[in-house]
Amino acid sequence: MSVDADTVRRIAHLARIAIKEEEVEHLKGELNAMLAFVEQLSEVDVAGVEPMTSVTPMAMKKRVDEVTDGGIADDIVKNAPATEDHFFLVPKVVE
Predict the structure, then answer these.
(1) What is the DSSP string of 13-74?
(2) Which family is this sequence assigned to (predicted)?
(3) Cα–Cα distance measured from residue 58 to residue 16, given in angstroms and rounded to the nearest whole number
(4) Taking the domains of the chain in order of start, what are their residue ranges?
(5) Residue 61, pLDDT score
């Protein structure tokens, strides 16, 4: 993929970056170099490579996935004008 001058201007506009006309050619070269590097990365065979969180081996901290009510349902609805069984009651807006 190659970036032309119009694409550089459009990217700058979308990113809300003001660029001068003399900067367009330089930025075009920079963007094309980045895209060429990304294309090189797609050639790397990563079959069988495990996903990792860091370059150093480490175990992720995990917590037990338990469903709870948080233990503070009364505190949550305490200031509500109307509640029922720890739920907020709201006026009906659709018939």
Answers:
(1) HHTT----GGGHHHHHHHHHHHHHHHHHHTTS--TTPPP-S-SS--PPP--------TT-HH
(2) Belongs to the GatC family.
(3) 40
(4) 5-41
(5) 83
